[in-house]
């Protein structure tokens, strides 16, 4: 491998991506950089201008002009952070979310068109090669919080949620397959019948692989959402992924008009409990029970969404 080899690959890759970006006016009426800002806002529900500037390596003045344009177009709202008044929190409006979703759909269609030219038998080899490039070049530094992407589930991700919940809880707490059955029913119910305006799943992705998840679904109680199946892979812990996933649920639930957010957990899940407490959840009730092959204490936690706005 030589410098020439890497530069040749870079020219080839840039030409391919350039064709994807511009041959179909992919980001119209926005530029590529503006679309990258929209994409980052759509996948990081609590973002401020400083975060965006660092993540996208943008000049402060240039980013400010982009955000001013977005605000004029009704795509974003900017408010002062309660934790640090010097920082400005940037969130997408309903129109901004719709615009971001449209741009992402166009990108998916464009990449899908490119992928359709690759023979099916060659696709696994292409995926392995792309993974190898990412892995080799990223192994020189430890993962960072900004490397984690929150996104909607892709085909196969719901099955991953079931498999990883079952495997991790068996390994870490000795729970039996009863828990896998519970998770499978929860995921199946969501997959078969959910309202995308009121219910959602987030996948945390790091280096191209899922490392965490959480769900927000409607509860039986009026105006109440339920947080379910929060999980972070052991090798991805310490990056604030659990906090980001819970934050995403809270922001989404508040944004679509729920009054309360509830969850059920067990007292042995101490790390998750600390996350819930940091975000203002209050213990509402607890009760001993025998489930998943263990004697446990179940806990109901509640968050008043009107009382925790930032």
From TrEMBL:
E.C. numbers: 2.3.1.-
Alphabetical UniProt keywords: Acyltransferase, Transferase
Identification of the protein by name: GNAT family N-acetyltransferase
Organism: Streptomyces coerulescens
Lineage: Bacteria, Bacillati, Actinomycetota, Actinomycetes, Kitasatosporales
SMART domains in alphabetical order: HTH_MARR
Pfam families assigned to the protein according to its UniProt record, in alphabetical order: Acetyltransf_1, MarR_2
CDD domains assigned: HTH_ARSR (cd00090), NAT_SF (cd04301)
Domain N-acetyltransferase: residue ranges: 148-306
Broad enzyme group: transferase
The keyword Transferase is annotated on this UniProt entry: yes
Domain HTH marR-type intervals: 1-135
């Amino acid at each position: 491998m030589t410098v020439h080899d890497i530069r040749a690959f870079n020219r080839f890759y840039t030409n391919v991506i350039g064709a994807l970006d511009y041959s179909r006016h992919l980001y119209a009426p926005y530029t590529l950089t503006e679309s990258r800002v929209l994409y980052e806002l759509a996948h990081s529900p609590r973002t401020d201008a400083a975060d965006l500037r660092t993540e996208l390596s943008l000049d402060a003045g240039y980013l400010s002009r982009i955000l001013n344009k977005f605000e004029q177009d009704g795509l974003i709202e900017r408010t002062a952070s309660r934790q640090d008044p010097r920082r400005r929190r940037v969130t997408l409006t309903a129109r901004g979310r719709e615009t971001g979703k449209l741009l992402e759909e166009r990108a998916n269609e464009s990449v899908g068109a490119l992928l359709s030219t690759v023979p099916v038998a060659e696709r696994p080899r292409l995926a392995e090669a792309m993974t190898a490039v990412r892995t080799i070049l990223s192994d020189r530094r430890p993962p960072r919080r900004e490397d984690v992407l929150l996104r909607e589930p892709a085909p196969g991700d719901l099955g991953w949620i079931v498999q990883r919940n079952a495997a991790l809880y068996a390994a870490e707490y000795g729970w039996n397959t009863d828990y896998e059955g519970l998770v499978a029913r929860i995921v199946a119910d969501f997959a078969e019948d959910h309202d995308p305006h009121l219910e959602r799943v987030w996948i945390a992705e790091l280096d191209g692989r899922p490392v965490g998840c959480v769900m927000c679904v409607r509860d039986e109680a009026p105006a109440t959402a339920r947080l379910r199946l929060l999980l972070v892979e052991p090798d991805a812990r310490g990056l604030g992924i659990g906090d980001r996933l819970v934050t995403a649920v809270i922001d989404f639930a508040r944004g679509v008009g729920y009054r309360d957010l509830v969850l059920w957990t067990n007292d042995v899940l101490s790390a998750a409990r600390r996350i819930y407490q940091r975000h203002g959840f209050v213990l509402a009730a607890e009760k001993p029970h025998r489930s998943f092959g263990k004697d446990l204490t179940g806990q109901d936690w509640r968050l008043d969404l009107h009382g925790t706005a930032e």
